[in-house]
Amino acid sequence: MIPIKTPGGGFKVWTKRFGNNPHIKILLLHGGPVGTHEYMECFESFFPKEGFEFYEYDQLGSYYSDQLKDSSLWTLGRFVEEVEQVRQAIGADKSNFYILGNLWGGILGMQYALKYQGNMKALIVANMMASCPDYGKYADEVLAKQMPPDVLKEIRDMEAKDDFVNPRYMELLLPHCYQQHLCWLKEWPDAVNRLFKHLNGEIYTTMQGPSAFDKMGY
């Protein structure tokens, strides 16, 4: 558990280290916001073979780390400062610090690099674009048109009413969006199921929108 200082006080974040390599230290930034490291456990099967030192990490507000009740701390800038404190705690610097950011972690990694590029060696962004408005346009113009018209109408009707807690909303999105574009496997891996079970829905919805289909921005 790494101590983190914020304007709201002190907290701790969960990390797990694998390997020992002073030349390559990789920090994995998970999706969400406030998803969990769990679906990134797949890196355990091949990163050690390469001799990398890498860190699984749950950001503040995520399941295994301290919780963030103060909504004023749910900002991209504060999460960037958190990553910088984690970097310092693991002893990484511009000669060996690599970030691999997936989904929201990709946005976070990009923002970190814009401010702290002098403290890092490289950034890898996986499955994320740099603009939520552009993603929203893509969802409307490409993804939505791949859905059956009656399914899309029902989804849009619920969105228009802000009826996102309706179980029917995710009931439709899981087969018609998540299983089409997020994880194609017929049976989702246990790690992916644990991610969705442990997702902090309140912070997730506030920061990015009610679903992966309807992003409002970070």
Structure characteristics:
Rossmann fold, 2 domains, 6-stranded mixed β-sheet, alpha/beta, 218 residues, 6 strands
Report on this model:
- With about 220 residues, this protein is α/β, with parallel strands linked by helices.
- It has 2 domains: about 1-125, 3-Layer(aba) Sandwich (Rossmann fold), CATH 3.40.50; about 130-210, no CATH class.
- It contains 8 helices and 6 strands, in the order E-E-E-H-E-H-E-H-E-H-H-H-H-H.
- The protein has helices at about 45-50, 75-90, 105-115, 130-145, 150-160, 165-180, 190-200, 200-210; strands at about 1-5, 10-20, 25-30, 55-60, 95-100, 120-125.
- It has a 6-stranded mixed sheet with strand order 1-2-4-3-5-6, covered by helices on one side.
- It is globular, with a radius of gyration of 18 Å.
- The mean pLDDT is about 95.
List the helices and strands and how they pair.
Layout: E1 2-6, E2 9-18, E3 25-29, H1 47-50, E4 53-58, H2 76-89, E5 97-102, H3 104-116, E6 122-126, H4 132-143, H5 149-160, H6 167-182, H7 190-198, H8 201-208
Helix pairs in contact: 2-3, 5-6
What's the CATH C level of the largest domain? Alpha Beta
CATH architecture of the largest domain: 3-Layer(aba) Sandwich
Number of domains: 2
Radius of gyration: 18 Å
Distance between the termini: 26 Å
Task: For the largest sheet, list the strands in their spatial order.
Answer: 1-2-4-3-5-6
Question: Looking at CATH, which topology of the largest domain would you report?
Answer: Rossmann fold
Element-level helix/strand string:
EEEHEHEHEHHHHH
